[in-house]
Structures are given as C-alpha cells and as structure tokens.
C-alpha cells in the first residue's frame, strides 16, 4: 500500500524543522519543499538558466550558483516578478517533491512546506499538521535565529498565510510554546496516532 502523505506547515520560527526532524528520527520519510526549491535552481538545472535569462547575470554568485538574497530583493516588493518566478518554480518543485515522496517506505510520509497553504500544495496531501506558535514568540525566535530585525521578521510574516488561514486547513495542530522535550513527546503521540490511520483519515 502506498504511504499516505502528511503535510507539515507552520509560520516562520514555529519550530517546523524540529518537528520534522523528530518525525524523521522515528523512521518517517520526510521531504522538505524548501530543499526541493533549492535543488531545482542548482547550476545545470533548466530553471536557473531561465532565471538568469529573465533577471540577468547579476543574479548569480561568482561561482555560478543562484544569489538568493539578490533574487529575494528583486521580487520582494514586486508582485509581478514574484508571480513570474512562482509560475516557473512551483510546478518544478511539485514534481521534485512528488519524486522524493514516491521513495517512501514508511506507513506515511511527510511533506514539509512553509507555504503549504499559500502555494496550494495542501491539495497534494491527505492530512495537514500545523505547528502553531503565538506571533510574539515567532518574532523573537526568528530574530534571534537569523540575527535579523523584528521589523524584517514581521514583513516575512505578512507574506506568509495568516495564522487563521493556516489553522482553517489544519487537521491537527501542535502548539509549540514549551520546551523541546515536550515537543518531542507531542510528536511521538501524533506518530502513534498516525500509524493507526488509513489514508490519513480516522
């Protein structure tokens, strides 16, 4: 039987990675859409050539790789450019993720994506787990982790789906406002529950 797919999402600084890592340590096959997004623009892949043709050589690092901060800057306040980039990359990322999910041998597999809801990727999964965290904690954690200003974090939050929107799509919610030991316990509880499901449904 093919594994069913759990979509794992949460806002920036919510602890998605810690949750995904613990599921992986329990033997669950995890595919990260962010990693897939990096793979599709590696040198030699067709997407990179199209990005350079569109934005110019200035978007490359001296070694020929994609200069992500420069690209982010070009699209940040420019909805038309962002849309162009998303239309190019989203289908490629979807295909890359599907290819990696197909390798799963665990009873269920996890697709981790910060933009699960916004990008419509939630339609590809059987169940949605949202890692939720109060916004003040999100901002403090992210600013500390990325050595960035609270103002910058808040501007990223604006682009991501509002918490309400994410929670509306959730089948399960894990509120990550305590310590790591507690978080791991919650992941293990969910894992035991998920092993009882057929196709992601009770």
TrEMBL record:
EC number of the protein: 2.7.1.24
Pathway: Cofactor biosynthesis; coenzyme A biosynthesis; CoA from (R)-pantothenate: step 5/5
Cellular localisation: Cytoplasm
Catalytic activity, as annotated: 3'-dephospho-CoA + ATP = ADP + CoA + H(+)
GO biological process, one term: coenzyme A biosynthetic process
Domain of life: Bacteria
GO CC term (a single one): cytoplasm
GO molecular function: ATP binding; dephospho-CoA kinase activity
Keywords: ATP-binding, Coenzyme A biosynthesis, Cytoplasm, Kinase, Nucleotide-binding, Transferase
Annotated ATP binding sites: 13-18
InterPro entries: Depp_CoAkinase (IPR001977), P-loop_NTPase (IPR027417)
Recorded family membership: Belongs to the CoaE family.
Its biological purpose: Catalyzes the phosphorylation of the 3'-hydroxyl group of dephosphocoenzyme A to form coenzyme A.
Protein name as catalogued: Dephospho-CoA kinase
Native species: Stutzerimonas stutzeri
Source species taxonomy: Bacteria, Pseudomonadati, Pseudomonadota, Gammaproteobacteria, Pseudomonadales
């Amino acid at each position: 039987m093919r594994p069913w797919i759990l979509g794992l999402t949460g806002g920036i600084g919510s602890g998605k990675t810690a949750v995904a890592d613990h599921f992986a340590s329990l033997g669950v096959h995890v595919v990260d859409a962010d990693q897939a997004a990096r793979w599709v623009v590696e040198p030699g892949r067709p997407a990179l050539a199209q990005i350079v043709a569109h934005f110019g050589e200035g978007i490359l690092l001296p070694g020929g790789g994609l200069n992500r901060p420069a690209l982010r800057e070009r699209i940040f306040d420019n909805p038309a450019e962002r849309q162009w980039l998303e239309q190019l990359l989203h289908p490629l990322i979807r295909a890359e993720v599907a290819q990696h999910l197909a390798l799963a041998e665990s009873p269920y597999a996890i697709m981790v994506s910060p933009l699960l809801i916004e990008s419509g990727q939630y339609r590809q999964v059987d169940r949605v787990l949202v890692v939720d965290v109060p916004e003040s904690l999100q901002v403090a954690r992210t600013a500390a982790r990325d050595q960035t200003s609270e103002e910058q974090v808040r501007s990223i939050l604006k682009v991501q789906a509002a918490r309400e929107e994410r929670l509306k799509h959730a089948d399960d919610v894990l509120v990550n406002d305590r310590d790591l030991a507690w978080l791991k316990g919650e992941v293990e509880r969910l894992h035991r529950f998920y092993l009882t499901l057929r196709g992601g449904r009770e």
